[in-house]
């Protein structure tokens, strides 16, 4: 069991470093973080971003402290809703992208990879995430078990929201640009060149399959 736990922790840490460093590099490329984080070495690694993310790893040793549980509780409060905000932003970005894609005269045939359930799936995901956030907000205000409401209990359940808002407001004043209208969204610059002959050949191969094979191909 210890081996399983160790492998799981290493896997989570590895994915966190990978995703966090690439996100930080993307922010630097867009002007939302210091420019040196945009540096990529000859092997294609965002070196400074990886070092910066790894620099936070010693926080894990807080668990050895007598007050480790308190610190862990606040770190958990900070990251507990992060997945919901992340996937909510992904769903919203997909919805807005598809709207801008259509507005600028493009069709779905020009998109090489499409979500299985399209925009409707993103709307369903966004609505469910919103409902979960509302439910969590209610629990944060009125804790289960009859405990009296308190500022500490609220922020231990909902600290991620003010942090996300603070970063959004900070980004707005940093770049002096806010919510883009659909006509302002650029869906053409830096588009990746794809091999349409290969993609169309794959589509033709799938179309020639029996119905049951096409159904399985949607998921595997």
Summary keywords:
220 residues, 0% strand, mainly alpha, 9 helices, 62% helix
Describe the structure.
This protein has 220 residues and is mostly helical. It has 9 helices and no strands. It has helices at residues 2-29, 47-54, 68-79, 82-103, 118-141, 151-158, 160-175, 196-207, 211-217. The chain is globular and about 65 Å long. The two termini are 31 Å apart. The model has no long low-confidence stretch (mean pLDDT 86).
Question: Quick check: average pLDDT?
Answer: 86
Weakly predicted, low-confidence segments: none
**Helical run tally:** 9
Give helix % range.
55-70%
Strand count, sense and barrel status of the largest sheet are: none
Shape annotation: globular
Structural class: mainly alpha
User: Helix and strand string, N-terminal first?
Assistant: HHHHHHHHH
